[in-house]
Design brief:
Arc Repressor Mutant, subunit A; DNA-binding; 121 residues; alpha+beta; homodimer; 5 strands; 3-stranded mixed β-sheet; Dna Ligase, domain 1
Chain lengths: 121, 121
DNA sequence: AAAATAATTTAGAATTATTCTAAAAAAATT
DNA sequence: AATTTTTTTAGAATAATTCTAAATTATTTT
């Protein structure tokens, strides 16, 4: 675990904003006083492979990263693209009813207008 | 509505397999005896904008297209990447309970092993 | 702790998927 | 049928990501 890798993991862990690779690069670059973009990608992959972070992918939306493995959904603001986590009790039971127990994981994204954007609308 | 556009729409509509842009290009190319890849992208966008098709995006997965606007989830096979539709009764009610009624759309993808891949496992 | 081995980082080139450009062709309108 | 608008096309351009191979850093062995 190099300082680059530790920094990247920390950035993903410490921020609920779910950054893009590019944003993580900028933050890491500042914190470390220099890092290669390739290193950021390397480590995002390494950390993903190691099961320490997860990727968030959605339609027309740059991939972001999340460090929580507690099952949850993502709310995506249609205006500012801010991502927030949400809990959906009973979802897995519902899913089992629909397709049985043979699934291994799920991705759930919901589009909305976040509070900030609703106020400024 | 040109024959290129009609062909692309037909490919997306007539096939449950949810093709990628590249696959659609190959199929359209055969059917029409020549088409430009740029035209395929142009039309996938135009059709998406027009609300005639939807895009399916997931982690580590090339975008695919779907012509159904009946709300439903997508099952993605972890081995062969085959995509199948599924219904999940009561999901929207559950979602409303969790986050209220302010959402506009959702994407739901579930990873599993499809029947074929389970047999060949 | 020094030497040897393995893993990581880096800059920049390469790749992939997609978008842009500007001219040609086709379709729609007058 | 002529004019205007839209679409198609090939190829160039772009953006995001991955690859490469040398340099650096970390880890293991001695």
């Amino acid at each position: 675990m190099t300082k680059q890798r530790a920094t990247i993991l920390d950035i993903v862990r410490s921020d609920k904003a779910h950054h893009t690779a590019e944003e993580i690069y900028h933050i890491a670059n500042e914190r470390l006083g220099g890092i290669s973009l390739a290193t950021v990608y390397n480590n995002l992959h390494a950390l993903e492979e190691a099961g320490l972070i997860r990727r968030i992918t959605a339609e027309h939306f740059a991939d972001r990263y999340d460090s929580s493995f507690v099952p949850h959904g993502h709310l995506i603001c249609e205006r500012c693209e801010r991502v927030t986590d949400f809990n959906i009790d009973g979802f897995e039971a519902l899913l089992s009813d629909a397709i049985g127990n043979s699934f291994s994981s799920y991705e759930l994204k919901v589009r909305h207008l976040c509070t900030k954007c609703r106020e400024n609308a």
